[in-house]
Amino acid sequence: MKKRILSFLLAAAMTAACLPLGAFAAEGADSAAEDPASIGIIGSADGPTQILVSDGTALPADSIDSAGATDVPVLIPETDAEDAAEGPQDPHSFTYVAFGDSIAAGVGLTNFVYNDADVFYDISPNFKGYSDECYVGYVADALGLDRDHAINLGLPALMTKDLLEMVRDGKMSQFNQPAGTYYSYPEFQDYIREADVISIEIGMNDAMVPFIVSIGNATNWKSEQLANTLVSGGYRDMSFSNFTKMVKQLFDIRLTAKETGDLFYALTTGASNVCSQAYTNVETYLPQVVDAIRAQNPDVQILLLGCYNPVPLMWTWSSFFNKYNRFVRQLAEDTGCTYVPIPRTKTANDGHPTIQGHKYIAQQIVDAIEEE
C-alpha cells in the first residue's frame, strides 16, 4: 500500500512542479510588503487578506471572497505606461508581443528570481527586461528585435479567463483565489495596438491550478513543504541527492486513511473532472481573447501556441492536452490565426521548459512568422 501511495504522490509531485502557485507559499515576506507600490499580489490558496495592484491602490473588499489567508506577495513589474503609449520611435518597425503564463515569463530558468523563504516570484524584469534564455528572447534575437519591439507579457499562474480580462480591460476583475494572483496592467492595450505579431500561450493553469489545490485540500496541506521545494526549483535538476531528498519528503507526509482516500480521488476521478472543466474554460474564453485582440488591432498576426504535455504518463492529462491542441488548431483555422505546435518541448523536472525547450518554442514561432 505504501508503494502505491508513493507512486501517486510522485505523480502529484511532478505535476505540482508545473505550476508557480502562490497557493503553496509560506507566511512572511514582510520586507516586500513594506513597499505596497511594488506588490501586485497578496494571497494564498485559502484566500486573500489584502490585495494591492501595481499602482498601490487597494482592490475593493467586496470583490474578494476572503477566507482569512496568509499574505503571500508576488512582485510584478512597474512599467512606464507613457513610453508604452508612445510606441516605437520608428513607426514602421516590427513589434512582437508575447502573452502567456509562467512558461512565457521564464519561470524555471537559471536567472529567474525566487524568494527562497516565501516562494514568490520577482517578475519585474519582464516586459522589456526578460531573460535572454526565454523563448521571447530567442525570437527577438532571430528577428533582430530590440527590447522595445519584443515585449514579454508573460505572467505566472495566469489562467485563460484572466488573460481575457487583461487583454480586454487591462486588469483582472477580481483576485483569482485558487491561483493566488491579481494583475493590473492598463498598458497591455497599448502593446496590443502596437504589435505586428502576438503569440498566445495559455491554458495549462486552467487544469493545473485547481488540480494542485485539490491535492493540497486532500492532504490538509501536508504537501505544502514538498510543493514549496518543487515550485522554487529545488528539484529542477534531478540528481541522485535531490531524488533522495524528494523521496524522503514524500514519506514524511504521513496521511490518515481519509486523506489517503481523498488523495486517490484527487489523482483519479477528481483530476478527470478538473481537466473537463479546464477544457470548457479554454473553449469558452480563448476565442474571446482572439476577438478582444482583433477589436484593438485588426491587422495583427495572432499565433496560437499549442501545449506540450509535462505529465505524459498520466492518461487524464494526456487526454486533456491532446483535446486542447485539437481545439486550438481548429480555432486558429476558423479565426485566421496561425497555429504553432510545440509538442517536442524539452522540460525540466519542474515541468517548465529547459533552455533547449525555449529555443525550440522560439524556432516554431519564428517559422510561423516567416510563413506569413
If you had to describe this structure to a student in words, what would you say it looks like?
The chain has about 375 residues and is α/β, with parallel strands linked by helices. The protein has 14 helices and nine strands. Helices cover about 45% and strands about 10% of the residues. A five-stranded parallel beta sheet has the order 6-3-7-8-9, with helices on both faces. A two-stranded antiparallel sheet has the order 1-2. The longest helix has 28 residues. The protein starts with a helix and ends with a helix.
Q: Give the ordered list of helices and strands.
A: HHEEHEHEEHEHHEHHHHHEHEH
Major sheet attributes: 5 strands, parallel
Measured on Cα atoms, how large is the radius of gyration?
A: 20 Å
Give helix % range. 40-55%
Low-confidence stretches: 1-10, 14-92
Question: What is the subunit organization of this protein?
Answer: single chain
How large is the share of residues in beta strands?
5-15%
The termini sit apart by 56 Å
Count up the helices: 14
Could you tell me the mean pLDDT?
A: 75
Would you tell me the structural class of the helices and strands? alpha/beta
Largest sheet strand order = 6-3-7-8-9
Q: How would the global form be characterised?
A: globular
DSSP E strands, number: 9
